[in-house]
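BUG: 3D viewer hangs when loading the predicted structure for this chain

Environment: internal workstation, default settings.
Expected: structure renders.
Actual: progress bar stalls at 90%.

Input used:
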Amino acid sequence: MGIDPGLNKTGVGVVEWSKGKILYAGHALIAPAVKMSLPDRLNVIINGIKEFTEQYSPHSAAVENVFYSVNAKSSLLLGQTRGAIIAALLFSKVPIYEFSALQIKQSVVGYGKAEKEQIKKMVELHLNRDFDKTPLDVTDALACAICLALHQTSKIY
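Structure tokens produced before the viewer hung:
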């Protein structure tokens, strides 16, 4: 399970490793209403993560470790969002891994400075599936899940 955290849009993607292949399992976009209070928005995200973990029972989850230095307020809000996501995963007893955007891009695309559209295209190739109308937050989450699957399998072999 991979998660691309965001207060406005949190992408969630699930893949599974089967017979040496990474297969698509599911995805969701958790998008609380912008006019909601911060606690209510975080609650929507927490409940969305909990529902997803109940539905898919992931063995582990990766949360993108996002770094913003442009705006202190945005960094604080994103930190609170990541904290809520991590708490929801801990509550569901799902082991958590963190990967930087650079690590995810290198794992999925092979280039650490890849653009979002390049990531989306490589996710489509990895999963042999078209994500044409899928938000980038979701394809980023799937990329995070692919990164986790690749890292976990590389430890086994």
